[in-house]
Backbone:
């Protein structure tokens, strides 16, 4: 049950950060007269959100990979983390190298895909906000 506690703790931390982002999103005041000020705040908020999104995605990859390896080993009746570690240490060096290569390659692909995805999703919006702010100068 240690795994459940780890992911519960990780979820609580992520939920806290998402609540902070939500609170900062309500700081944009529609009653405020200054359009430029609100555009700057929206730009800052979306920029922070996209950075947090990227960091969360990259930070969650290692725990998820380790957990999936543990679950896969637990399917073969290895119950404790020490047994799982012992199981992986008994594998040939070539197999461990393939696992490590797979993890590194997956991380590199995830890094570039996530950067592209966030840029595609939020980048044009941020560029448009920057253009609008520049027009108001």
Residues:
């Amino acid at each position: 049950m240690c795994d459940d506690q780890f992911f519960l703790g990780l979820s609580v931390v992520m939920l806290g950060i998402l609540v902070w982002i939500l609170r900062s999103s309500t700081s944009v005041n529609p009653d405020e007269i200054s359009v430029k000020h609100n555009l700057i705040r929206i730009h800052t908020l979306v920029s922070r959100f996209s950075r947090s999104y990227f960091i969360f995605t990259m930070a969650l990859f290692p725990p998820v990979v380790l957990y999936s390896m543990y679950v896969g080993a637990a399917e073969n009746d290895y119950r404790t983390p020490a047994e799982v570690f012992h199981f992986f240490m008994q594998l040939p060096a070539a197999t461990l190298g393939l696992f490590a290569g797979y993890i590194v390659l997956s991380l590199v692909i995830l890094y570039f895909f996530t950067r592209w995805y966030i840029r595609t999703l939020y980048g044009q919006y941020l560029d448009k906000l920057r253009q609008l702010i520049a027009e108001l100068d």
Observations:
- The chain has a mean pLDDT of 82.
- DSSP finds four helices and no strands in the chain.
